[in-house]
Each structure stands twice: as C-alpha cells, then as structure tokens.
C-alpha cells in the first residue's frame, strides 16, 4: 500500500478516535446548550449528531476492541477532567431538556450510533 491509499497506516490511532469522539460530544452538547428552547435544542442536537455520527461509530468500535482501547489509556487518563466536564454538561442539558423527545433521541443516538 502507498501512503494515502486507505491502508492501515492511514487508520486513526486510538487516541485520535477518542479525541474525535469527545469533540463530537462537545459539538452535539453545545448545539443543545445554545438553543433558545428544548424543541430547538433537539433539532440542533440531531443535526450536529448527523454531521459527526462517524466519530461516534468509531468510538463504539474502539470500545469493543479492548486491545486498541488499551492503547488510548494514557490519552484518556490525561484527559480525564475533559470527559468529566463533558459528562457534567450532558447531565445539565438532560435535566433541562431530557423530556423533549428529540433531545432524548439525540442522547440515545450518541450512546448507540
């Protein structure tokens, strides 16, 4: 394989997959946080999720591969505070708009893309 031709060398590292997934979470959460109401939050979160779905899919694949997930352990540990912040923001948004079906659906999609 030549560089850039889709071989394994082009595959993202476990840390890169983790970073993309966390960024995708941040984008979806921000879309909900910045909405004027919960209906708009749901629509915005759904659109953000659709735009970043592949990052969620790759993260779920990584979670299922314990060997590769282990390769991201140092990165995840060093970024632990960042995930706690993401989790807290998700909880606040869920408390505010969790009863809105489109928001609940967006949270579900993030868990099971």
Helical content class: over 70%
Oligomer kind? single chain
Output the structural class: mainly alpha
Number of strands: 0
In whole angstroms, how far apart are the ends? Answer: 31 Å
Q: What would the average pLDDT be, to the nearest integer?
A: 91
Task: Indicate how many domains the architecture comprises.
Answer: 1
Instruction: Give helix and strand order, one letter per element, not per position.
Output: HHHHHH
**Total of helices:** 6
Fill in the keyword field for this structure.
mainly alpha, 113 residues, elongated, 6 helices, 78% helix
Q: How would you describe this protein?
A:
It is a single chain. By secondary structure, the chain is mainly alpha-helical. It has one domain. It is 78% helix and 0% strand. It contains 6 helices and no strands. The protein is elongated and about 45 Å long. The protein starts with 13 loop residues before the first helix and ends with a helix.
SSE layout and pairing:
Elements: H1 14-33, H2 38-64, H3 66-71, H4 73-78, H5 80-97, H6 101-111
Task: Please summarize what this structure is.
Helix 1 packs antiparallel against helix 2 and helix 2 runs parallel beside helix 6. The longest helix has 27 residues.
């Amino acid at each position: 394989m030549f560089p850039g031709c889709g071989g394994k060398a082009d595959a993202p590292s476990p840390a890169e997959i983790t970073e993309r997934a966390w960024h995708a979470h941040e984008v979806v959460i921000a879309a909900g946080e910045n909405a004027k109401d919960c209906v708009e939050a749901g629509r915005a979160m759904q659109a953000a999720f659709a735009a970043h779905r592949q990052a969620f899919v790759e993260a779920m694949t990584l979670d299922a591969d314990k060997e590769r997930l282990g390769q991201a352990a140092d990165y995840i540990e060093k970024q632990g505070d960042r995930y706690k912040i993401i989790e807290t923001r998700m909880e606040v948004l869920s408390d505010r708009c969790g009863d809105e079906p489109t928001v609940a659906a967006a949270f579900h999609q993030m868990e099971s893309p």
